[in-house]
Amino acid sequence: MTSTAESQHGSEQRTGVPGDIDVVILGAGINGAGLFRDLSAQGVSCCIVDKADFGSGTSAAPSRLIHGGLKYLETGEFGLVAQSTLERNLLLKNAPHYVSPLPTVIPIFSWGKGMWAALRTLLGSTSAPRSRGAILIKIGLMIYDFYGSRHRVMPRHRLVGRRQALRDIPALTGSIVATGTYYDAKITHPERLVLELIADGLEANPNSSAANYTSLVSSSNGVLAFRRQNRGEFSLRPRLVVNAAGPWIDHVNAALGAPSRMIGGTKGSHILLKHEALVQSLAGRMLYFEADDGRICLVYDYLGKALVGSTDLAADNPDTVRCEPAEIDYLLESVRTLLPGMRFERDQIVYAYSGIRPLPASDAAIPGLISRDHSAPVAESEPSRPFPIISLIGGKWTTFRGFAEEVADTVLDRLGRIRKVTTRSMPIGGGKDFPADTTARSSWLAKAASASGIDEARLDLLLSRYGTKALPIARHQSASSNEDRLPDSHDYSVSEIDYIARSEFVEHLADIVMRRTTLAISGSLTTSDLQQIALIAGRALGWNAQRISEEIDAVVTQLNGNNLMGLQPEHLPRTTSDRAKLA
User: Fold this and answer.
1) In whole angstroms, what is the distance from residue 255 CA to residue 218 CA?
2) DSSP state letters, 260-301
3) CA-CA distance, 404 to 410, in Å (whole number)?
4) Which of 64, 213, 275, 491 has the most other CB atoms within 10 Å of its CB?
5) Got the DSSP string for 11-76?
6) Claim to verify: residue 269 and residue 168 sit in the same structural domain
7) What is the 3-state secondary structure of 99-112?
8) CA–CA separation, 157 and 491 (whole Å)
9) Is the pLDDT confidence value at 582 over 50?
10) Could you say which residues form the signal peptide (predicted)?
11) 55 backbone φψ class: left, alpha, beta (φ>0; ψ -120 to 50)
12) What's the CA gap between 234 and 227, in Å, rounded?
């Protein structure tokens, strides 16, 4: 990341004076951030703005998978599967600090069922297949392996019978006849990946800028006026506008003077359970299974908790979305049926989250059959609006780079520019020069220890958390006079939080605990840690006592209301002297 002044105020300085710019991107989720990096790398001047924090909307509420979309084979979206598997393999190479392989197990309950239903769906039926049998799954996995062969980085699939399957995962219901295992990938910190894409764009082009917590105030005669939270206003005259607002696309188009009805989103909710027995039984694998109604559900180990998802319900208001009681019942009952004998109750939930998938408007009776493919329709310029608007519709986390590349080529063509570089092999953030094996990792740690004065054990943790961006954080820690850990989350240091607050576009306490770190979603955040983090951020950002108190209250309200999370009680102090120093 860049320095404090550059990150926190540099974008304001660059965009604070009204002026001409090539492209304004409205919405800093994964699609907007990916496009921002691509265009900036081509020398196009861009300003990306978001009304909230970067990556805080739909992009913060995925299943945290980077996957090829096995289920899209049923709807005949072979092109989407081909692109998704390719992009998955590229992300494993370009973002190895956050994206890693995930062995995935499909429980199978019959040998031959589902063939005719799958054929009907493939031909356009509005009903989803039920009870997909071993023959159908075998065919699907063979096709999936074929599409995933480009830049292959993971093993091919395999099927085993009931006896072997129950030896591998004894907790599975005895009604299975077999299991199929294939490989996809997971992403440990999608919010930070969004942030790193934006940082990469800023580094690539000094004429580009980024601003979170920035609202579009007006659009008049080709000039867009914005208001930054607590920072005043600025205006820009773009040659082209990209609407990457996800579920809010239609609202933004209306504000731009180009009313539309493009989005017909669906809601996806997830819960995280504190369930050590289940996590141990999964042993690093994901279970990808049918619920009783035919929907696809999943459960896997995420940061030591069991992540269970997801629902797929028609919904269109992203500002009020939350995991509802009926959804919790549905998810819990789904895993109870699959894993009988294990206890699944509400008191095991440590966190819940929901988001609206920005899918194209559709009359499909079953939300799960709405295409996850993407498109970028253009509203051409008009006399009262001299810039065209490109709206980014649909898509999914895995395919953001490919989607951005397609749209960037369209933008370049309209601007009369040519592509200078490809992003296909471009590392993201801390994925640059990331050590690829044990020997390279040991070498990196030794050099970083010499450069920072921090011990290798600590550097190893930071490398896992931030990739090679760990080095400036380690140097900040070395220069700090206070290297104590947080009171309860001992693997986070005070200086680490201070670096984040000063250098990573932080405006609110929630930015730190919910997006720059995994303290909240892991269910480990305590009252003591929250208070300490607020004090660190307050010192870094100039908050007074009232502002600190308001920030704490806002986080507690959000976690309790939207995320079903109560702050954990304090852990026992490490030592009496440690507690005394933190008091």
Assistant:
1) 7
2) ---B--EEEEEEEE--HHHHHHHTT-EEEEE-TTS-EEEEEE
3) 10
4) 275
5) HHHHHSS-EEEEEEEE--SHHHHHHHHHHHHTT--EEEE-SSSTT-SGGGSS-SEE---GGGGTTT
6) yes
7) EEEEEEEEEECCCC
8) 37
9) no
10) none
11) left
12) 7
| 219 within 8 A of 257, measured Cβ to Cβ | yes
SS3 552: helix
Range of the domain at 494: 476-563
pTM across the whole model: 0.90
Question: Is residue 207 within 8 Å of residue 377, measured between CB atoms?
Answer: no
Instruction: Please state whether the peptide bond connecting residue 489 to the residue before it is cis, i.e. omega within 30 degrees of 0.
Output: no
For residue 298, tell me if it sits in a domain: yes
Average pLDDT over residues 256-268: 87
Question: For residue 528, what is the DSSP state?
Answer: H
3-class SS string, 406-448: HHHHHHHHHHCCCCCCCCCCCCCHHHCCCCCCHHHHHHHHHHH
Pairing of strands 46-49, 19-26: parallel
Q: What is the CATH number of the domain that holds 325?
A: 3.30.9.10
Neighbours of 574 (CB within 10 A): 13
The residue count of the chain comes to 583
What span, in angstroms and rounded, lies between the C-alpha atoms of 486 and 483?
10
**pLDDT tens digits, one per residue of 196-241:** 999 999 999 999 999 999 999 999 999 999 999 978 899 999 999 9
Question: What is the predicted pLDDT for the residue at 296?
Answer: 86
- Amino acid, single-letter form, for residue 66: I
Are residues 397 and 536 both part of a single domain? Answer: no
CA–CA dist 468, 253 (Å, integer): 39
Of the three residues 347, 369, 391, the one that is the final residue of a domain is: 369
Spatial distance between the Cα atoms of 487 and 481, rounded to a whole number of angstroms: 17
| 502-559 tens-digit pLDDT | 999 999 999 999 999 999 999 889 999 999 999 999 999 999 999 999 999 999 999 9
Residue pair 427/434 in contact (Cβ under 8 Å)? The answer is yes
Please state whether beta strands 19-26 and 232-243 pair in parallel, antiparallel, or not at all (unpaired).
Answer: parallel
pLDDT of 12 above 80: no
Overall domain count for the chain: 3
Query: How many CB atoms neighbour CB 122 within 10 A?
Result: 13
270 and 365 inside one domain: yes
The whole-angstrom separation of Cα 348 and Cα 277 is 12
pLDDT at residue 362 in the model: 56
Residue 414: both structure tokens together: 């309209």
Residue with tokens 């850990």: 485
